[in-house]
Amino acid sequence: MENNQFNLSFNDQKTVLLRLMKYTLPFKGILAVGFIMLIISTIAGVATPYLVKIFIDEYLTPGVFPESEIMWLVIAFIAVQLIGAITTYMQIYLFQYLAFKVIQQLRIDAFDKIGRLGMRYFDKVPGGSVVSRITNDTEAIVEMFIGVLATVLMAIFMVISSFIMMFVLDVRLALLALVFMPIIVVVLAVYRKYSANFFSHARQLLSDLNAKLAESIEGMKIIQVFNQEDRLSQEFNEINEMHYKYNMKNVRLDGLLLRPAISMISVLAIALILGYFGLLSFESTVTAGVIFAFIQYMERFFEPLSQVSQNLNIFQQALVSASRVFALMDDDRLEPAQSEDAACRVTDGHIEFRNVTFSYDGRTDVLKDISFTARPGETVALVGHTGSGKSSIINLFMRFYEFSKGDILVDGHSIKRIPKQELKEKVGLVLQDPFIFYGTIESNIRLYHPEMTFEQVKAAAEFVYADKFISKLPGEYEHRVIEKGSAFSSGERQLLAFARTMAIDPKVLILDEATANIDSETEEQIQRSLERMRKGRTTLAIAHRLSTIQDADQILVLNKGEIVEQGTHDSLIRYGGIYHKMYQLQNGQQ
Amino acid sequence: MKVFKKMGWFFKREWRSYSVGVIMLVLVALMELIPPQVIGWVIDRITQETLTGNLLMQYILLLVAVAVLTYIFRYFWRIMIFGASYRLGRILRSRLYRKYSQMSPAFYQKRRTGDLMAHATNDIQAVQATAGAGILTIADSLITGGAVLVTMAVTISPKLTLLAMIPLPFMVILTSYYGKLLNRGFKKAQAAFSMLNDKTQESISGIKVTKTFGYERSDQADFRRMSDDVVEKNLKVSKVDALFDPTIMTVIGASYFIAIFYGAQMVLSDTISIGELVTFTTYLGMMVWPLLALGWFFNLVQRGSASYDRIQEIMDTENQVGVDYKIEGQPEGDIIFDLGAFNFPDDESDGLRDVRFAIKKGTTVGIVGRTGSGKSALIRLLLREFDTVNPEDIKYGKHPLRDYEISNLRRQFGYVPQDHFLFSTSIRNNIAFSNPGMDEAEIYHAAKLSHVHEDIKGFTDGYDTVVGERGVSVSGGQKQRISIARALIMDPEVLILDDSLSAVDAETEEQILANLQDSRAGKTNIITAHRMSAVSHADLIIVMDNGTIIEHGDHHALMAKGGWYHDTYNAQALRDALESTLDDLVLKEER
């Protein structure tokens, strides 16, 4: 299970928030319009009680109703309502629009980063957690934008505008009302202090609970066979109990300091208002409308507070999520950099490894001072045990990793100087277990090649003899691949990968032969197509079955990162070394 | 509504919490009626100039009392109702876990882990919300809504109440209509999001292919297109979502307008006072939440009901393997397979037929054969993952396997599965899985027997190394040997190694097998394997093919027979021999 972090330091929160806010900059216009709408809707909101106040004090109490003035008041009331409704709508929609656009940009940036990260990164970080960075964590930030930022903004506007109106109505009372401010601030600060703690505990426990459950479901067979149902059930219940306790702490805290407390304070505020106006009425006149309006403003003042303080938990979670997304974007395990020179092109496919040394971890060298040359059109076979370094040679040639010493030359140019695009177009790699994408047979051969015609796709399939099994599928090239091609045999998947590579017609071919068992019929097709593919192409091939590389121009036997034997099949057999033994071993098996 | 009936057991159990909670809610509703009245009185007294200091003091004290009491009542209903709902979540979660741990593998074959997880997370959450927020919303709408409505009608004016209420139903109708639209749009947005999720997943799994072909840009363009779709679908939801607030505002505005318009006329005709009009409008504001709550309530109940049914469906699922038993004691003696035919449920191909042999107590039996020949099926039947048609098909001692209590039966077996599943806890806890109280010496002993002690000592944290933690890699072979130690530590009557030596090299295999022979004298071992060397010392070797026995006997008998075992054994022996000479050669080269 991945280690979830639930809290950030205050400084980290600030940095993350600022960085997140920068994402809103491209949407300055929308942000500005949203703000204007927010301001208008807030003004409309505070105008309503004021209009009612005017009606009560100027017309209702004296009992005079000049028709045209009342008409204007009614029109004003309706206009304020309509403007309020429209601007509220616009403001909510615009802020949500902003949130989705910002998150989209964040997602795109994070995804683009994936393309730039090197294999070093993917070796270390489980795929599931990368996915969750790009999708789930960003989704949590959406919640923040919509649920928190917009609410907080609205709340701030509402509190400020209500306060201004209170000042307009009665300065002394407004000042008096200020005594509630420190009380509210203290209550909410205490709430925040405990709530952040309880909330993150409860969340951690819930995540533990789910992790425990998921693991138990996966390992249920073992749990049952070892008769440990009761013990694990008890362990689960213990976490369950803890989780309940923290939830109850949250409920109690909410009860003590949040909504009930805020509503108590608002009733006390009414008492204050009535008391003030009551006393005031003994010495001067107090109008009903002012009392009415003042109470209305006071309520608007309290209403958003509890909601906002509750939402702050979401806000903190979102910042944690955002910090994880940013950590992905800042990861420096990038793919090897190219210092591209457009003049460096792959023309003939002459490959030279010159004293190449490489290490995955910077400590143990997995390739030591490797040198060899493959002339255009030649096939060089790499053989050796697992861990001998043959896959590393291919990984370096594909630029999945950066080598530390020496150089790899293609047609005399350092591989680091050849433009990436050129390299990808001219070098075709067939992976051991080819990944089959969601889509059809055709889309799996074509991949992202919109200009490739269907004929070219078909020709590639025919070239590698994949058409045989494709023609038997329902829908043939339109056949939909399910579950990553699990319905195909490994041989069939291999043929698809061949076709995929042949479709781009590379100059240099890199083969990583499959070790999996392949049925004999497909095996024959694979051998035939391999032969065909290699013709006229410089080929580097990792061979597990020595029978397939007897006609190679050169065989390199690798052991612990070094070339220990080198030559043709015949010369190596005559030499009578490791290759000879390996050959015997495999033939003995058949 | 049926869901409340189905959850009756819970409400019965928690009747105290709910009664107290609802009484508190009623008290809160009553308390909330007071401040608007006081506001009206004060305004009237002020305008009529009849307010005295004494009276004002009484009003204020009344409000302070109301504030404090409301605070107390509110606090308690929260504890009562939300507390009860959390207890429901706790009970359901615990029951579900219990149920899961009772279910046989057939259950897990039919259901995906994700779904089983969803029942324990989302579904329980939804049911919990029904028992908490659901009860709250309905109580709030009925009690507060009703109380306010009655008070408005009785203390001020029934006619004005009726008039002012006219716009409010529109709010309920509109918001529930938006709710429906929102739901539909939300589902589409969810689907788009999950497509994006799949896309990301695929891009990361296929990263090597993408890098090979240099298609990063196109992949990114594809992602961009799909993220556009997510935005578009979500904005459709936003368009509806943004309607809620303005609609509510407008409807309430209309209601206020009517109240003040007609109220003013009533004030002029002296039917009500100005104070009463202010009281009335304040009450009007209090009607909003109860009405909205009504809409939420139906939504909550709908979701909770569907979730409750899904949970109940799991709870009602019967175990495929019977749990009734006839014999109290531990099974003992020989294990006899006398199996005519067996097919796995929902699978016609992987059958067994005519499998008849005896595993004598204290002997070692090897089972070999190609993948899919039925080796593992025999083990699965023995572990009662599935039951045979006929009870007499498999007997342990004198009685059919299923006559024993399942935990008594399992106690006899030490099982090492093919897939060497370990729990994400320390290696120590993994080995002592069958009994966490095991002491160090026993754990070390088991680890030594399975030839993994030295490996574990080599880890930085030794036996405290947590399996599966980032940065710590326990190899497949090591995991396999740890899971052998986990079974050996029980010193079981019957040790079952289900192809459990596949990831260890020939030398280690030999040593583990030798250790087994020494330490398990008089106990039964059942070993399935792909390598013949793992079973060659067995007292009886069964060769399976296509679900039936094709050869049986000990090593010598089978070698003499010259069949499948003979051929496979020789081929593998030759290979091993060559491999070791090759290793020698490589070693020589290095020197």
TrEMBL record, chain A:
Keywords: ATP-binding, Membrane, Nucleotide-binding, Transmembrane, Transmembrane helix, Transport
SMART domains, sorted: AAA
Organism phylogeny: Bacteria, Bacillati, Bacillota, Bacilli, Bacillales
InterPro entries recorded: AAA+_ATPase, ABC1_TM_dom, ABC1_TM_sf, ABC_transporter-like_ATP-bd, ABC_transporter-like_CS, P-loop_NTPase, Type_1_exporter
UniProt cross-references to Pfam families, sorted A to Z: ABC_membrane, ABC_tran
Subcellular locations according to the entry: Cell membrane
Protein's UniProt name: ABC transporter ATP-binding protein
PANTHER family linked to this entry: ATP-BINDING CASSETTE SUB-FAMILY B MEMBER 10, MITOCHONDRIAL (PTHR43394:SF1), ATP-DEPENDENT PERMEASE MDL1, MITOCHONDRIAL (PTHR43394)
Domain ABC transmembrane type-1 residue range list: 32-317
Transmembrane segments: 29-50, 70-95, 141-167, 173-191, 256-279
GO MF assignments: ABC-type oligopeptide transporter activity; ATP binding; ATP hydrolysis activity
Job of this protein: May be involved in multidrug export. Transmembrane domains (TMD) form a pore in the cell membrane and the ATP-binding domain (NBD) is responsible for energy generation.
Membrane topology, as annotated: Multi-pass membrane protein
GO cellular component: plasma membrane
Superkingdom in the source lineage: Bacteria
Domain ABC transporter: 351-585
Originating species: Salinicoccus cyprini
UniProtKB/TrEMBL annotation, chain B:
Species, as recorded: Salinicoccus cyprini
GO cellular component term, pick one: plasma membrane
GO MF, one annotated term: ATP binding
PROSITE patterns: ABC_TM1F, ABC_TRANSPORTER_1, ABC_TRANSPORTER_2
Subcellular location: Cell membrane
Membrane topology field: Multi-pass membrane protein
CDD domains (alphabetical): ABC_6TM_TmrB_like
Name of the molecule in the record: ATP-binding cassette domain-containing protein
